[in-house]
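pasting for ref
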Amino acid sequence: MERVIPGGQAPRRNTPRRAITVGPLSMDRLGRAKRAFTTRRVPPVAMQELVAGQVRPRTGDLVLARVDRIGHHARLELTTGRRAHLHVGDEIIVAYAHRYAPDQFEAHVPLGLSPTHLVASGGIASEMHSRCGDVRRPTDISPMGLVADYRGVPLNVGAFGLLPCPVPEHTPVTVVVLGTSMNAGKTTTAHRLVRGLAVAGHSPGAAKVTGTGAGGDYWLMIDAGAHAVLDFTDVGLASTYRIEMAALERKAVELIHHLAQAGCGAIVVEVADGVFQQETARLMQSELFRSRIDGVIFAAADAVGAIGGLERLRALELPVVALAGKLTRSPLAVREAAAACDLPVLTLDELGDPATASALFGFSAPPHATPLELEEASCSQEESGPDAHGETEDAREPLSGSAQGVPGGLSGGVA
């Protein structure tokens, strides 16, 4: 039975008595709903009520919505990682959040529970403001209500993130992967570097500190053999677009601390989008975040992007140790970038080579890899392609070309 929230007692909102209703969310209805990756840390047992009416959602709020029209995202990534096909009439549980994706959508959290859009397959409800001409219109959804606890208080992913851990006495060597834009090869670079470190026996940790909630990169790092994998959704953020900077840099550093506490011997951090995206640009200038960085690998789609991006990073005095990314598909582009940038340009095979990966992190030699594992890693020609989850931020095709040398390695870590 629905009940009306008394005036002045609306959950989290000062809204007139007649404007908000709270009703039960039955176990049967909850069981039929498709729950998205972004909501995976919220236990179903906490989902007991629906808050509807004139309520303003916040970023991170969970919403039960009905699919009205299938658009660009025809599948939803579930909490398990499976990509479920969507049908008109399906009910889904996703999270409100802003989205920044030059190759897809820019979207903002709407002011109310009016019809809106599914703008990411990982489960983001938001109102589209612009879209790339290469993609279809987003899938249309109608909110049925905010998912709330037994008191009628809306549930927010921010309340279910990992708690901050103590600052570790020592942080393993940490390399950050930055790029020119979406689809520059950042995730592919991080993936192959993690694989090389894993085969070498260095127990790598992987973290994605900015972006839009989705599991493709998360599962990819697990499959690469990472000792531990975390992303911003683990610390209570469905998306990092338009998040207050102090909170973002704090969460990014928390992810590194959690990986150190988990016993990782090396840490690979990916920062989404390009160096001019507003959160990425500010994170690169954050003294708190920079203090945890030992090196940067810069991924670019072509030599010009590599040269321009490197100039920007060096102006910020960031320790760039190598170039990588889609440009290494072309041996000519590799030679152009190497000649202009006086840095090694590492292909996928080289990033995934245990000896090269070890050298990048200052390790003297792969300690545990068997000869067979070393041969398989260095000779691997596996295709990552667009990942098995369909949507990806970065290209995953095999890259080619030859490196122009390997840096002497990093040392230290943060005490």
